[in-house]
Amino acid sequence: MNWIIGTMLLALLVPMYVAFDSQHIWQKMLAFASVSTKSSMLILAISVLRDDWTIGVVGVLVLCVGNAALMLLAQTIKQVDKW
Amino acid sequence: MIESVSDLDVLAIVLLLPAAAIMTTLQKNPYHALVVRGLLGSVAALVYALLGAADVALTEALVGTMLAITLYAVAVRSSLVLRLGTIAEHPEDLPAEPDAAPESLGEPASAIPSELETDADLKPFLQDLYAFCQRHYLRLELMSFPDREALAAALRSREIHAASYRVPEADRAADSCTSDSCNYAIEVRVERLYELMRDELNPACVNLRAAPDSEAAASLPTPEPAPEPDTPAPPTTV
User: Which domain holds residue B61?
Assistant: First the structure.
């Protein structure tokens, strides 16, 4: 099952490169959303592999919090984005 | 338990953390840095969960990803602003009681007013100023005042960072204007802003000067009263 972790890790590298390379703020936000979701899915996959439900709960919470942070940050940046 | 994930995978995931941290430090725009900081929080939560610290991962996700970047976004938004006072061309557009509260003294206007765009001298000056603000990630907030006295009072009371006004024809000859064609003057209160504007604004468009009794004036060779020691300078990016 290790190939799943390896593949998810490679998929995580793509939005990280986009976040570094892009100069557009909304493209960075999309990359952040992607990394946040992918990392929480990776946590969930690890929790299943280890059969450790504590980590699984953390994965679910990170999934929720990542989206909430994205919405809050987007609301703030939307106000600033006029200039 | 850790044998379910290979050591190579663990190493690769842990290496994402310094990579994300380096990415954060390389950002020039503060808003971009905030987004990448959120990304760093996600990666850190992943690494902590992978290494078995579920409670630390949860704290990092809540604080590092959500609380810190939201608070910093608000802080950056309210501090990276250049409040420029101008004299209103149409005084009847001002609020009814201009001295009721400090907040209502100036009227924020983020865009160039349409009636001012017809002014051939003002347009290049404002365009130059907008370009300057965009270069330094500053938000330009124009505030209108009824006359020159109200503008000077607002500058003294630190309500605005800089004041801009049209130099009358009679005063232009006596002024230390670097160019005969500049009809507008900016008085800057903040020393760092004065230095940046002196280096970057086009002297043909604007006559730049440090406001008397300000930090910027204190740095000039002419004798001026010393500034207050606890004067907070708005942060500017270089």
Answer: 2-77
Measured distance between the N- and C-terminal CA atoms of chain B, rounded to whole angstroms: 49
Read off the pLDDT of residues B112-160 as tens digits, 9 standing for 90 and up.
444 444 456 667 777 888 888 888 888 888 888 888 888 888 888 888 8
**Is residue B182 included in any domain, yes or no?**
yes
The CATH code of the domain that includes B170 is 3.40.190
Span B26-40, pLDDT tens digits: 998 888 999 999 999
Question: By residue range, what is the domain housing residue A47?
Answer: 2-80
Q: What is the CA B207 to chain-centroid distance, rounded? A: 21
Describe the crossing of helices B68-79 and B30-50 by its angle, rounded to 10 degrees: 170
Which chain A residues are closer than 8 Å to B46 by Cβ?
Answer: 39-40, 42-43, 62
- Taken in order B111, B115, B116, B120, is the CA torsion positive or negative? positive
| Best of A73, A78, A82 to mutate (most B CBs within 10 Å, chain B) | A73
> Would you say residue B163 lies in a domain?
yes
Q: Coil, strand or helix: which one is B40? A: helix
Q: In terms of domains, do B65 and B87 share one?
A: no
Residue B70 domain-assigned (yes or no) = yes
Which of A58, A78, A82 to mutate to probe the B interface, most B CBs <10 Å? A58
Same domain, B89 and B193: yes
- Is residue B133 within 8 A of residue A82, CB to CB? The reply is no
In total, how many domains does chain B have? 2
Could you say which of A12, A49, A77 has the minimum Cβ distance to residue B5? A49
Under an 8 A CB cutoff, do A66 and B57 touch? no
